[in-house]
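Q: Second attempt. The first request was missing the SMILES, so the protein and nicotinamide-adenine-dinucleotide are both included now.
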Amino acid sequence: MKQHIDSAPSTPGKFKMEKSPYNRLRLHSSLAKLTFWSLFFLVLIYFFFFKSPSPSSSSSSSSLPSDLSRRSLRTSSYAGPNFEKRVRASAKIRSRTGISVLVTGAAGFVGTHVSAALKRRGDGVVGLDNFNDYYDPSLKRARQALLERSGVYIVEGDINDAVLVSKLFDIVPFTHVMHLAAQAGVRYAMENPGSYVHSNIAGLVSILEVCKNANPQPAIVWASSSSVYGLNTKVPFSEKDRTDQPASLYAATKKAGEEFAHTYNHIYGLSLTGLRFFTVYGPWGRPDMAYFFFTRDILKGKSIPIFEAANHGTVARDFTYIDDIVKGCLGALDTAEKSTGSGGKKKGVAQLRVFNLGNTSPVPVSDLVGILEKLLKVKAKRLVMKLPRNGDVQFTHANISLAEREIGYKPSTDLQTGLKKFVQWYLSYYENGKKAAQ
Ligand SMILES: NC(=O)c1ccc[n+]([C@@H]2O[C@H](COP(=O)([O-])OP(=O)(O)OC[C@H]3O[C@@H](n4cnc5c(N)ncnc54)[C@H](O)[C@@H]3O)[C@@H](O)[C@H]2O)c1
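A: Got both inputs this time. The predicted holo structure:
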């Protein structure tokens, strides 16, 4: 091989073919090598373009945004008049004061409820979700079918796919983005930290980048979390309290998100509102959350873990019903001021807000189990355990006076009422527990 390269003329135009058998042999071997390398590159290209994993399975992937961008360029379903027609129809505003909203994470628990509520009041809504399998994707598909019936189209794609998200902005000049797509859950962060970085860090920055470049720039309302209060012990949690002691990687990514929000507001004039949700529950909820899997396991006769803190300390949560959260999201969207930048440049000071959206009445987890027992008419097998140090905090309690004042947020559903609605939904969705929730 070396000899062959070394013997090649430095000036290709001066190459003169000689007819000796040795040279014919060399020619054959070069042709064989050329064929081999051509085939090798063809196989590489084939695997790169046709066999790379789909965005929908990227829950555990830590692929870079550029990979996804390249992929979307060849994804024909994102192109063509039919795709654009569906996006436009879904984004059509039907009320005089309506807004057009891109809802990320629309096949998720909160995203489905917010999308449906916006559509009901006449706003234009387009969803975006990668349908990852962090929990049973069939539940996400069922939510998608529900939204489809009310006229909301969910585009299947990843928030890191900047080409796709920009394309959506080319088709619809969204006035607002409701950014709910994220890797949720506190405990799973120890198993798969990369998925949190992928969706909550890279994904958020990717959305902010597209919004900053959009003309006009949309106003953004996005989901932070009560988990940012971490090891804070002052109750109730107020937006002014310290949030620099996260107890989990999930919390750290949400805290980082709040810092990114500050940066994009400061440099590019994006209007940004972060909502710190407190343990949201309700119909179409998330199977990884305690109220959901307690219901499943009580019905199955399986024991359920009830955590207690040191010295038999009570673990309590400020459980917030989904309809109250939806009202908070709509209130935040309706009071969001316009972004002030254009062409990626800030033209003036833009709005930057953070609100707690909780219920202001923490309930011990053992009381939650008591309510479920009554509603399900089944005695739970309680297994009292020490609260593991894997990210969960002992209690959460929201001070919501700021949200009340600024966005008219007023939660009105107590845990008993909200759980009754959840259990009704659960029993009908899973056919009285005959169909197993996963
Ligand atoms: N439910 C709660 O109690 C709660 C509490 C605090 C904060 N939050 C936050 O609220 C938001 C909504 O939560 P939820 O309970 O509806 O969770 P969810 O998991 O049901 O919804 C999130 C959706 O985002 C999608 N998604 C994730 N990564 C994506 C990506 N890279 N690209 C495209 N789609 C992606 C998922 O497929 C899912 O459908 C999240 O940001 C979550 O962190 C929720």
